[in-house]
C-alpha cells in the first residue's frame, strides 16, 4: 500500500511538475505561429535549449514509469480516474508557479474533479 501511494504521488505531483516546467519553457520561447518545417525545427531547438524543458521531460518520464508500475499493481479502472487529481494540481501549479489567472468557473470544475477522485478512492475496496 505504501509503494502504491508513493507511485500515485509521483504520477500526480511529479508529472504535473513536469508539465509546469515544460509550459514555462514554451512560454519563454514564445508562441509558435509559423508552421513551416524550418520554423517548427527552430522552435523545437529553442525549446530544447531551455533548462526547464529538460527538467520537465525528466519529471514527466519519472511519472510515466510510476504510472507503469502502478498499472502493474492496481486495476486500470482505479488508476486512470484517480490520477485525475493531476488536473487539480495543474490548476494550483499554474496559479502559484506560472502566475496564471484561474477563473471561479475553473475552480468549480477542479472541485468537481476532486469530488470524483474521492468517489473513485471510496470505491476501491
Would you kindly provide a written description of the structure presented here, covering whatever features stand out?
- This protein has 125 residues and is mainly α.
- The chain has one domain (2-122).
- The protein is 82% helix and 0% strand.
- It has 6 helices and no strands.
- The chain has helices spanning 2-29, 37-48, 51-73, 76-82, 85-97, 104-122.
- Helix 1 (2-29) runs antiparallel to helix 3 (51-73).
- 19% of the residues are buried.
Unreliable stretches: none
Task: Return the string of H and E elements.
Answer: HHHHHH
* Distance from first to last alpha carbon: 12 Å
Indicate the radius of gyration in whole angstroms: 17 Å
Question: What amount of the residues lies in strands?
Answer: under 5%
**How many H/I helical runs?**
6
Number of domains: 1
Q: What is the SS-derived class?
A: mainly alpha
What layout of secondary structure does this protein have?
Layout: H1 2-29, H2 37-48, H3 51-73, H4 76-82, H5 85-97, H6 104-122
Helix pairs in contact: 1-3, 1-5, 5-6
What structural keywords apply?
125 residues
How would you summarize this macromolecular structure in one to three sentences?
This protein has helices at residues 2-29, 37-48, 51-73, 76-82, 85-97, 104-122. With 125 residues, the protein is mainly alpha-helical. The protein has one domain (2-122).
